[in-house]
Amino acid sequence: MSSFRVKGGLKLKGEITPQGAKNEALQILCAVLLTSGKVTIHKIPNIRDVNKLIELLADMGVKVNKIGPESYTFQADQINLQYLETDDFLTKASSLRGSVMILGPLLARFGTGRLSKPGGDKIGRRRMDTHFTGFQKLGAEFHYDKKKEIYHIDGKNLKGAYMLLDEASVTGTANIVMAAVMAEGKTTIYNAACEPYLQQLCDILNRMGAKITGIGSNLLNIEGVKSLKGTEHTLLPDMIEIGSFIGLAAMTQSEITIKDAQIHRLGIIPDTFRRMGIKLEFRGDDIFIPAQKHYEIETFIDGSILTVADAIWPGFTPDLLSIVLVTATQAKGTVLVHQKMFESRLFFVDKLIDMGAQIILCDPHRATVIGLDRKYPLRGIRMTSPDIRAGVSLLIAALSAEGTSVIDNIEQIDRGYQYIDQRLNALGADIVRVD
Q1: pLDDT-based confidence at 127, cuts 50/70/90?
Q2: Sorting pLDDT into bands at 50, 70 and 90, what band is 416?
Q3: Is 39's pLDDT higher than 90?
Q4: Any idea where the Enolpyruvate transferase domain is (predicted)?
């Protein structure tokens, strides 16, 4: 297990470019299974979860060729379906939650799929019902082996259907869309997720020859086609990294420019951080955050305490609530952070409390943060990263704290942020990776 040793209290300065979006990468990589043609993808982040999925695709028979630091070509013209029956496949797929999205393409193109119960962050229960109900609506039959925790899916005769999703699941919508693009007839998906990453997936599928309309809304219409072709695609910058860097700049009183942020795709993220009192300047497609000694949390119009809650897009992404929470610890004012979608993502606040933060954990979903305007700086401690997003929040806290902190289990952080120690050290941070 590796650790970060972090010297706190340093002010950072400079430019940083966000990596390609992890959540988009996992969807787009699965989509290469839909065609025998060559698919070129740019801005692929070099992070553990993405690399694991690329390795899994290669094991399935996809020809993978790295053509640049962040660019790959993929060609799925000789998929080995027998590999799906091996224990090696089940083991590798179960260690990566994003691997569930290979099911839609496999059903669409080959009429069969097999997957063990996916892994991923321990951030609460995340159901697969939306995925499988959607496949059933298209005519797939599935069986679950409780003893082995293996799903067997038969999708040889997929037909278009109308469906109202029980939740606007991003991965569920992506999976169903990829299954439906080659199903016979028309599919209508209501209450579909409409995140920018899902829009990107629909865009690449259309360039491959799919017929999807309603992109960007919660009502998608899909006309099934016989086959798809290869194409080229560039991932969006990771909005979670962008939000993390905004919070980092505020916490450490740093002057940072976030390059090529594609601001028009960020939704309410910038405005949410502005409500936390953080100054942002848009310079073309770059975000400039000036050094701020003080920032004050807004109240609601009637003077009541601000609540920041997660919601499906275009609401505030749950992946940035931990960043808002840690940023609030050094602000002036109080905020209620309400994590509605997952029940375990706030449990890292005990580490912040140990560092000196004033936080009341109301229940598994809500925490009240009392910002004392840097009157009591956080202090360095030893702590463990419980998941990707909490891990980088603790890293931000450590960078702002007095003294030295040690963060264990940084493999969790590596799953979502590429070379984060090197990139922040280039801005003036002092982060040492210790094996």
Answers
A1: low
A2: confident
A3: yes
A4: 7-422
Annotated binding residues for UDP-N-acetyl-alpha-D-glucosamine, written as ranges, equal 97, 319, 341
Which residues are documented as binding site for phosphoenolpyruvate?
22-23
pTM for the full predicted model: 0.93
pLDDT in tens, 377-413: 999 999 998 888 899 999 999 999 999 999 999 998 9
Annotated binding-site positions: 22-23, 97, 319, 341
The bridge status of strand 3-7 relative to strand 404-408 is: antiparallel
User: Per residue in 129-144, pLDDT tens?
Assistant: 888 899 999 999 978 7
**pLDDT at position 151:** 77
Q: What are the chain's domains? A: 3-19+237-434 (3.65.10.10), 22-234 (3.65.10.10)
| Residues with a known catalytic role | 121
